[in-house]
Amino acid sequence: MIRFNLNKISILFFLLLSEVSFGFSMQEEKKIIDSSGKPIPHALVKLEGQKALLVDERGMVSLDQTAEKIIVYAMGFESLQLTWEEWESKNLITLLEKTGNLQEVVVSATRTERSVEQLPMPVTVLNTEQIQNTGGVRLSEVLREQTGLQITSNHGSGLQMQGLDSDYILILLDGEPLIGRTAGTFDLDRISVSNIDRIEILRGPSSAIYGSEAMGGVINIITKSYQNKSDLTLGLRHRSFNTWNPYFELGVGKDKWSTQIFLDHLQTDGFDLTPEIVGQTQNPYQASTAQVKVSGILSEKFTLNLFARGYGENSQGILQTNGNAGAEILDLDNRRRDFNFNPTLRFKPNAEWTFTLRGMSSWFSTLSQSNFRTSGEIFEFQEFDQFFHRTELQTDFMANSKNLITLGVGQLIETVEATRYDDLNRFDAGYIFLQHLWDPIPKVNIVTGLRADFHSQFGNRLSPKISGQYQISDNFSWQASIGAGFKAPDFRHLLLNFNNAAAGYYVFGANLAADGISRLQEQGLVAQVLINPASIGQLNAETSRAINTGFRWKPSSNSQVIVNAYRNEIDNLIETAPIAQLVTGQNAFSYFNIRSVITQGLEVDAQVSLLENLSLSAGYAFLDTKDLEVIQQIENGELFKRNAQNQTRRVTRSDYGGLFNRSRHTGNLKVNYREKHSDIDFALRAIFRGKFGFADLNGNLILDDEREFAPGWISYNITASKTFGNGIFLEAGGTNLLNTMTAAQPNNPGRVLFLGIKLPILNLLNK
Amino acid sequence: MKTIQKLIFTTSIAAFLFSCDNTDDLTPTLPLEVTMVEDLAAPNDEIDRTTGEVVVARPFQFFSLERNELVTENEDWDLAFKGTTIRVNNTKNVEAAIVNGIFEEISEVPANATFRTDSENTFAIPTGSGSGWYNYNSATFTVTPIPGRVILVKTTEGNFLKLEILSYYKGNPPVEEINPRTTPSGYYTFRFVLQTNGTSKF
Q1: Which of A157, A286, A538, A745 has the most C-beta neighbours closer than 10 Å?
Q2: What Pfam families does its record include (chain B) (predicted)?
Q3: What are the structural domain ranges in chain A?
Q4: pTM above 0.90, yes or no
Q5: Which residue in A322, A323, A644 is closest to B8 by CB distance?
């Protein structure tokens, strides 16, 4: 049966409770707690033959009737059945946490709320506790500990998933896309984690509902909401490299309205992996985030949500240039700004229909400047301004308990103005998507989706996807999905107009290439045009076809195994290629659909709760990647390599190591332990990254030599945390305790130690 | 660092064993001499990084493959080097072709090799990363000869010659030892085999 909105159900119980709570309570109050002794404020108590009662926010409940049997349950916990005698004899009733996160609600997978176990595609949810266990302050630090995810360093901390780079992964914040990429990378260090409630990780192509960019997968970050509760939290986190992270969170939830305000500031001195070279690996920076979320019930049928977020970041650094007058110091100054505003209006006239109208506007800008220290003259100045607007209407129709149909229609505008682009450029696009959730029999869930995109620049695209799940038994279910994804050419591919004065080469976006070449020809700079000019400007979207299949298995009530195997076939990858040889001997380049690659692998996650205060989890990911053109060249005997003595021989198939920056083997081992006397939670993690190719050394530009691999390494991380009775939260710990560093991973600063405190001010004042 | 050294050690032993096997098997019939030219200095012009203007112009280095020495522009030079650019002597009808293969295995000029000379605007040995003799790796800022690229030259005397560029850096260092900031570049190390009997067999 399709559960449309689990939260609504609990609100319903809330209303019920308010009616009964005025009644005379005959019974003693009981407290429903979890295994750590914390109250469970969302627990429900059901007397046989009666409606369930919700406990109060302290986890307390009292019954005004008796019954033979009483069932106590709560989302995320194993339910407990008690006889009346058992109920009578206890003051505290402990529910055991369910192993794994299969109960967690996921929004991003189908754009409707469904629990993980109902979804036929590979989805993982990280809850607040798992996020807290990492001790991370930025999103990159949370995601790097998850099975099958890697953080790569290329114009920021980008996410790699199923062997696909950041370019192909859509990042959503409360369901709305975040924009602002540099050279294709979405920098995860822009996202503070202090106010994140949970993170949904959706693997495999999701273009069938999200269009471009969701070719490899989707990350949805869900920030905290306050429904019918108020809280004021002050937090401070300190870590190595003189990093400070104070934050403030205010949530006011009253009757029909709730508001959340979040302020976060992060500053750090950065770090340097190469002290012998002038300039740091990571420059000092200061970043501030402000976020406001307002949601309200306007009437029985209308709800309104407003979301606004601003982000600003400044960094400073130095660089040495070897000019004609010898070495000179350059002062660098970089700025990054980001602002989002997303209003959402929801109309639910009856139980069957829901209409959601979403607006989403985003501004993203970067500015980078470098000046000679001695003369103050500008060495380089670059600006980038991007605006993105989207309006979307989503209609959900629950035909019956087995069929839910979703139709979405949207329109978007994107503009960009930048130093390296001419004029203000604008893209227009529209899309329509249709999705059918179908549970033909209770054991089967099928999700079918189809999305059509109409784009002013690269034409139209159709993205289908079908996923199915069969619940073979209560403990075992099998999932499989087949889908297509695409990634539209970005501004850079279409509009770049770049001339490297020092090296003397030109790069033109596909739209400008024909003009660029004729202009160079007029100036007499072209020696030879290398390609047919008619083929210039024919840039298509990058496309993928993917299959994912796996299972979720619960061998016992305290353990869980999740497995997913996948294969992504990606065609039309966009790369630069020379279009003309210039009289200087240099080339002019443009972008073309050139390569085809394959990424395939297997991901396994296993969890077991050994004791009520001890749980273990292990993850392993195998990844195999290859460039089909390289394979062809090797088979034709056209690729050669050199050894350390600069002798040449043919590259063989077994020499080829696939794509750069992909580890064939990765994994993690996590232990969570609660020390009973002190009530301190320990989270110990060992995160393994196997060897990966970092750069070509033998001149053939492919990964085919042992010397071209960076060694594998293990990061040992530990977090100790304690929540006191009054709600004060303390944490201390360290990541990469063995201080392992490699130049091939410039985003790994070595050992980081941290301390943090969180004060629930309202809670403390009320006591 | 230690693992890298061990690695180099093991790979060099492997390469040594491998090459021993090879010489046993090949039993070369033509005793043509392989000439090695080391560290031919041909630095590029100095260019202002902001404007792209040439600040210090440097001359081409003219080399006679027939005489195996540097010569002046007025003499019979075959190839001229400056930075990554290699010119052929078009006034003396020197021609060049680029083929793919292993230097030792190229026993004659292949029928499909297209010999060209330089024109005003084109080069017989194309310039630019990936198109001629080298790759520029923008991740490591290194110029490395494309493995398997062999340059065939018809010299001023009309003789055929095969040539392989081994390094662009001083001292012909293993690639992992090149530091693009400190290792002097524009130093060609190459080897060639010249056939003086007028045939196109090596």
Answers
A1: A157
A2: HmuY
A3: 6-94, 105-221, 222-766
A4: no
A5: A644
- β-pairing, A403-418 vs A378-400, is antiparallel
Range A222-766: architecture per CATH: Beta Barrel (2.40)
Check: CB of residue A308 under 8 Å from CB of residue A359: no
Helix (DSSP H) and strand (DSSP E) numbers for chain B? 1, 13
Residue A428: phi and psi, rounded to 5, are -125, 140
pLDDT at B23: 44
Q: Tell me the two tokens of residue B75.
A: 């003499």
Which of the four pLDDT bands, split at 50, 70 and 90, describes residue B19?
A: very low
Is residue A315 a contact partner of residue A345, using CB atoms and an 8 Å limit? no
Burial class of residue A737 in the structure, from the number of CB atoms within 10 Å of its CB (0-12 exposed, 13-18 middle, 19+ buried): middle
- Interface mutation vs chain A, best among B16, B116, B121, most A CBs within 10 Å: B121
User: Is the Cα dihedral A32, A36, A40, A43 positive or negative?
Assistant: negative
Find the residue in B nearest to A500 (Cα): B52
Residue in A688, A760, A699, A748 with CA at minimum distance from that of residue A724: A760
Q: Decide if B174 and A324 are in contact by the 8 Å CB cutoff.
A: no
Task: Give A645→chain B minimum CA distance, Å.
Answer: 6
End-to-end CA distance of chain A: 44
Say whether residue A111 is in contact with chain B using an 8 A CB cutoff.
no
Instruction: Measure the CA dihedral A503/A509/A510/A516, to 10°.
Output: -60
The tokens for A166 are: 């950041």
Q: What number is the ipTM of this complex?
A: 0.74
CA distance A12 to A32: 20
Listed residue (A703, A758, A697) closest to A731, CA to CA: A758
Which residues in chain B touch residue A531, judged by CB atoms under 8 angstroms apart? none
- B11 in reach of chain A (CB within 8 A): yes
Say yes or no for a CB contact (<8 Å) between B164 and A644. no
Burial class (CB in 10 A: 0-12, 13-18, 19+), A611: exposed
Shortest CA distance from A645: residue in chain B: B174
- The phi, psi pair for B4, rounded to 5°, reads -60, -45
CATH superfamily of A6-94: Carboxypeptidase-like, regulatory domain (2.60.40.1120)
In DSSP terms, A471 is beta-bridged to: A477
Chain B residues touching residue A324 (CB < 8 angstroms): 46, 48, 55-56
* CATH class assigned to A105-221: mainly beta
CB-based contact, A536 to chain B, within 8 Å: no
Distance CA A552, CA A469 (A): 10
Nearest to A407 by CA among A439, A434, A442, A368: A434
Residue of A nearest to B103 (CA): A648
HEC profile of A639-686: CEEECCCCCEEECCCCCCCCCCCCECEEEEEEEEEEECCCCEEEEEEE
pLDDT exceeds cutoff 90 at B161: yes
Smallest CA-to-CA distance from B18 within A658, A632, A694, A652 is with A652
Domain coordinates in residue numbering, chain B: 29-195
Contacts of A330 in chain B (CB under 8 A): none
Q: What is the DSSP letter of A113?
A: -
